[in-house]
Known about the structure:
There is one protein chain. The chain is mainly alpha-helical. The chain has helices at 6-10, 12-20, 23-41, 46-57, 63-86, 93-111, 120-128, 134-144. Helix content is 74%, strand content 0%. The radius of gyration is 15 Å and the shape is globular. It starts with 5 loop residues before the first helix and ends with a helix.
Amino acid sequence: MTSLTRLDSVSREVSDAFRQANDESRREAARAAAELAVVTTGIKDESISEALAVLRSGITSDVALRARVESLADELDGLYFRLAEANESSRDPEMFSFFSRARAASAVAHALADDPSDLHEAVYEAASAMDNAADLLATVKKMLL
Length: 145
């Protein structure tokens, strides 16, 4: 029996395609998803730029860089949670911007994963960064098939 992942909650078809894909296709799909999330959210940070350059170069893992990107994601999550607590009933765009940028940073961090079986988290986080992830999911699915 196949265990479910968070990506299954977004798209069972993409998750199934991810499970069946080879490691190279998984890495490429994770990189593309992370890049699209970064562009869509407009996140600007040196560690993000460096990570995307590393991913484009074909390097499959960089532990220190991943830690820096994860730290940025944690920082953005913290800002989101502080605003959410202060504005419980608000739909503050800044609050959601922090959430989306945290998800994009997390997508980049997951794209740097050592284990190719964990790369699906990059796609999940990238999809979570967007208001409408349909184009992202279609692109990823096409890359995996």
